[in-house]
Amino acid sequence: MLRTEEMLLNVGPQHPSTHGVFRLVLKIDGEIIKEAKPVIGYLHRGTEKLAEDLQYTQIIPYTDRMDYVSAMTNNYVLCHAVETMMDIKVPERAEYLRVIAMELGRVASHLVWWGTYLLDLGATSPLLYAFREREMIINLLNELSGARLTFNYMRVGGVKWDAPEGWIEKVAEFIPYMREQLKGYHTLVTGNEIFLNRVKGIGKYTKEEAINFSLSGANLRCTGVKWDLRKNEPYSIYDRFDFDVPVQDGGDAWARYQVRLAEIEESLKILEQACEQFPAEGDILAKVPKIIKAPKGEAFVRIESPRGEIGCYIASDGKKEPYRLKFRRPSFYNLQILPKLLEGESIANLISILGAVDIILGEVDG
Amino acid sequence: MLGLAKGLKYTLKNLTREKPTYEYPHEPLPLPDRFRGIQKFYPEKCIVCNQCANICPTDCIQLTGKKHPDPAKKGKIIDTYDINFEICILCDLCTEVCPTEAIIMTNNFELSEYSRDELFKNLEWLDENDENIRKVNKA
After folding, report:
1. Is residue B30 domain-resident?
2. B60 annotated as belonging to a binding site for a ligand
3. A164:B32 CB<8 A
């Protein structure tokens, strides 16, 4: 009988498969993980503390840097919270621009996940396909907002820029193209036997566990819970669109994969309808005072980001800076289940499980 | 093995597709007009209202003014204007609040330097940065 002994293995923070600066301290016996301890905080910038000295408009560029793969949803959650406090009605054209920008961001975010997840599993080419399409979205958002990642596009009461001439048509043209490419993605990867063996039955958890660990987004919907804030608690103008909430019952990495790819399709549906209904003219910014002062009190709003429920809590004492700002960052909550999932798994499955959770370290560390 | 073969077929089909990569830096990167790059500063337009320095989320703008040399005219003119590009995040808020469009964005984005000191740009440098200036500055 071969004698084995336990060993401590340090994965990260400079490991390419940890999607940033995430560290895992593993206690392993041979190749089997006995215990996993996540170590976070390498990208902590103290956004919430910094915000206490900043005016509301000044905080918007900081939110770009939390979930840097879909910055539009982060912009929105802060603006939405301040608008809720100040009771501002956002003009319709601005709402449509916001929804189009957010859904484009959601597609781009899922594409990044799809590409990098397969890269983790050893497939190099899907990343190139995903980034080719993502580049088109980034270029569209660049034309709209003037930046490729850190958009700083939304303002309290509306958006900074109106759509440039012909931009809506470009988005409308992109939708059928993306649908066609998505079919190609399924041909390339979804039926691949090696890939299926790496994801089926890996990182499995039940509905109750998902709820108890306060998971959200695709991590929750993969267990059969039909919960999407765009549908269940419609914000902005999401109640005007006809779309489904993709759900799977498996609760494993394969179910999460299917949910995310189906979500791209649903986002394209929303985009299509938003482009059709886009108002021909109108304001893009509501009448807001030059210096924004939220009234005394507190507010909490939550919206559906590509990674799950992102929430924003503001406590204000009537000044132009918030007294306290808190973000409920979905990646941080989704990561909680990781030590439980890793127990008893092999090192090779670690990459598959961690990748399927879809974390963004800027958001985990805040 | 069918799924594998299908995937391989798709890969081969894509082999002859047009390349989507850019030839940067051999060719300049095409950027939309709204792109936020390094700021251009017009000293003659500035009225030293300090709004850009106040709105800056990272406090990277330092400016001082002096009295107008013509005693008949009121107000101040700009004396020094520095932007610290070590911490500037090109968020566009300074150009948004400027009442006279004295500071505007350009499409230039190449900021790498050999020394960190060189990232402190002064009034003269920002004045000379006058290529690819953004045409539309306010929505």
Report:
1. no
2. no
3. yes
Q: What is the pLDDT of residues A43-81, one digit of tens each?
A: 899 999 999 999 999 999 999 999 899 999 999 999 999
At A66, phi and psi to the nearest 5?
-80, -75
Number of domains in chain B: 1
Q: What is the ipTM of this complex?
A: 0.91
A134: closest chain B residue by CA:
B20
Q: Which of A150, A161, A191 sits opposite B34 (nearest CB)?
A: A161
- Which one of A64, A138, A187 would you mutate to disrupt binding with B, by most B Cβ within 10 Å of its Cβ? A187
Domain at B64, CATH number = 3.30.70.3270
Q: How many CA atoms lie within 13 A of A191 on its CB side?
A: 16
Query: Does pLDDT of B22 surpass 90?
Result: no
Q: B87 at the A interface (CB within 8 A)?
A: no
> How far apart are alpha carbons A357 and A331 in whole angstroms?
8
Q: What is the pTM of this model?
A: 0.93
Render A302-348 in DSSP notation, one character per residue: EEEETTEEEEEEEEE-SSSS-SEEEEE-HHHHHGGGHHHHHTT-BHH
Q: Between chains, do B92 and A152 touch, taking CB under 8 Å as contact?
A: yes
